[in-house]
Fold these 2 entries.
Entry 1:
Amino acid sequence: MEVLLESGGECVALVRINRPEARNALNSAVREQLARTFVELASNDDIRCVVVTGMEKVFAAGADIKAMADAQPIDMILRASERNWGPIKDFPKPLIAAVNGFALGGGCELAMHADMIIAGASAKFAQPEIRVGIIPGAGGTQRLLRAVGKFKAMKILLTGEMVSAQEAEAMGLVTEVVPDDEVLDRALALARSIALLPPLAVRKIKELVLQGGDLPLEAALVMERHAFQLMFATADQKEGMQAFIEKRSPNFTGL
Ligand code: HXC
């Protein structure tokens, strides 16, 4: 298997891409396995937060160039790779990318599908598609623009140059930079801390940030207000506020 599903501790799953011989290039097997894994994790009530990672020297080197080199447009249509990105794009629980080494092309796009990116100090991000005669095809032009703004996005997309973890953090592409050997532990610790929080509220926050960001502000604010009001139907709201008043730790059940 090129995609391994491991336990990340209490209520946390760890998805590991494991195709070392091709620097974790995302061929159809990897993409299909990733898609299946995220479909499974979405409906697994025991899992509240997920970490996706690669290997020590590479998160993922992008789409598999060898599998695309001779393709025609119709082949690309029939491959319908958007079907495999769908379960990651629509994953309803928090997803944290733990990035060591290279996150290039589709690998950078995979990281940008996550809600947070924890990067090792030596991590490198790039959208090098331009250098092999194509453009990003899994949201790179759009998610990068929204993450870092036009002027940084243009440079990354038009030059294909690598961006260090520190530069990526400064421009808002990563959440935190930590020493290389602490990346996975930090991502898992963050995931476990989120897994302790009320899952319905967690899910709504993710939905609002992702959906609301592309709506007119007034519409997004209405959506937020309705979601806020809905939280008062949850047992976790009653528990959270009661625990505060009683000066004890809350016990969230997900209801
Ligand atoms: C296919 C790849 C690959 C890739 C590496 N390999 N990246 N195979 N597709 N994206 C293979 C190499 O061909 C080589 O195979 C083996 O992995 C080791 O790679 P090396 O280059 O020798 O390793 P290294 O010197 O450590 O360099 C690592 C690297 C470099 C910096 C990650 O491999 C690299 O630049 N890769 C390409 C990155 C890229 O351009 N990505 C964008 C792809 S387009 P052999 O058989 O020689 O051992 C894209 C479009 C997205 O992502 C569209 C939507 C998904």
Entry 2:
Amino acid sequence: MGRAKKVVLAYSGGVDTSVCIPYLKHEWGVEEVIALAADLGQGEDLEPVREKALKSGASESLIADVKQSFVKDYAFSAIQANALYENRYPLGTALARPLIAKVLVETAEQYGADAIAHGCTGKGNDQVRFDVAVAALNPNLKILAPAREWGMSREETIAYGERFGIPAPVKKSSPYSIDSNLLGRSIEAGVLEDPATEPPEEIYLMTKSITNTPNEPEYIEIGFSRGIPTTLNGEHKNPIDLIEQLNRVAGNHGVGRIDMIENRLVGIKSREIYEAPAMSVLIHAHRDLESLTLTPDVTHYKRGIEETYSQIVYNGLWYSPLKAALDGFIQKTQERVSGTVRVKLFKGNAFIVGRQSENSLYTPDLATYGAEDAFDHKAAQGFIYVWGLPTRIWAQHHRS
Ligand code: ARG
């Protein structure tokens, strides 16, 4: 008796997920492996990947193009939440996992599979995200994670694969571990494991080095409708085009590189490099538009929500009741976050240089220092008396 009969495997075409196929069948008694590769805009031709799964022993091999949903349902929500894990990482990898889990579960249901599988090891966040998301979407499905249990070294994994016709990687494989999709690239391992070492220029693909960026700034205008980016330089863009174009334009100015030590959910500190040009600019611009259109209390309260939201997404709780509740709050706040933000891209920076909104709460005759000033200065006196009263009373009692 195997651990499961029919399994849908999250498949990337790499050595680990390829070896998972014979491993599941021969070591764990799985009868049928259905491979599923998600197209998240990683910019790789997935047809050879699809074929490789079949050669590795999958009975069925599928490609799911989920780019549109990835941007609309995951990235745009994260922008509305100004989601940055530990204040820096725009969550490109973390946001993809619940979507992959969703198509895995849908495929399992469609094909009558009793389990899903993935190639994550036991050290990372992604295993948590897959396992918890699958459990949330269909708690009856089993979850198999061979690479978490097989205990094989890289060499042993390759040798195991070769026994089943899975070729060893031809080119000397990159010393880095890279996850890539429309929202950006996450790069770790190799020389990056020393937190004191500057990342070599070769790791970057989406962002230019500052020495090679244009010597003239470039102005762009991003239009938001209810917190969702909809236009670029006045032109309506579909979600995928908007992200792709902004990745190119901002990346060309070296915008969106992040080098950080982050705290994984499993307790490990890791050094990760990110490239996320579009997401970095969009969150920056969106937050600015919020400061024009939201009341002070909502703006301030939302900061705490954003922090929690970012942790929830990072920690694999996308399909959780708390996430759903926070979404309710965030959606309500976005009703009036519409307008345009002007951004100046220059030498690795995205400077916000202007913003406009029909819902702007900025009131010129209250803000001005000129003659049109409509603010009642005398009213400030009574306000300060009441505002400062507790402090005044405290001081009267405690003056030494
Ligand atoms: N640390 C990031 C996260 O947990 C990215 C991990 C992606 N994997 C990689 N090979 N760099 O979301």
